Amino acid sequence: MVKAENILAGFLGRLLDDRFFADVQITRAFPRTVKPTVLKNTVIAVGIQEIHIDDASIGGDVKTGFFSVFADIFVPFSDESATPEKFVFRICRDTADFRIVSVRVSEIKTNSTAGCYVMRAVFTFHNEIFFGGNGDE
């Protein structure tokens, strides 16, 4: 079961705990800080793409559903050893126990202003989702 408020934090936590990403800046999409225009290191920005919930039991309060988290992967042109795909595969490994059901990736594009390659990966999971209630914080 996943607590709704922790979907993104749990996803981010898995990536931040993996030493593979030690030299990668991992952040929530649209952080409240200004970033440099030209990237020097790989950046992965994550956010919630979609949540779809249904009742899992008749007369009960069990919700199941799908939730999708996107990861925008920015790899600098100067980093010849990195490809967006290798980060996608590692994210799959780190989050597989979240009950991953699909992964969609965009084509790799270039962003000349930021000096990087860009790929969006969307990871969809299926699980019970808890929204709290009865004064739960």
Describe this structure in words.
The chain is of the alpha/beta class. The protein has 2 helices and 7 strands. The protein has helices spanning 7-16, 84-95; strands at residues 2-3, 25-28, 43-55, 63-76, 100-105, 109-111, 116-130. Strands 1, 2, 3, 4, 5, 6 and 7 form a 7-stranded mixed β-sheet that branches. A hairpin with a 4-residue loop joins strand 6 (109-111) and strand 7. The chain starts with a strand and ends in a 7-residue tail after the last strand. The mean pLDDT is 86.
Average pLDDT over all residues: 86
What structural class is derived from the secondary structure elements? Answer: alpha/beta
Order of helices and strands: EHEEEHEEE
Q: Distance between termini?
A: 16 Å
Number of strands: 7
Q: Taking Cα atoms only, what radius of gyration do you get, to the nearest Å?
A: 17 Å
By oligomeric state, this entry counts as single chain
The description of the largest β-sheet is: 7 strands, mixed
The 3D shape can be described as: elongated
Q: Uncertain spans, ≥5 residues at pLDDT below 50?
A: none
Question: Which band does the percent of strand residues land in?
Answer: 35-45%
List the keywords:
seven-stranded mixed sheet; 42% strand; 137 residues; 16% helix; elongated; alpha/beta
Brief account:
The protein is about 15% helix and about 40% strand. With about 140 residues, it is an alpha/beta fold.
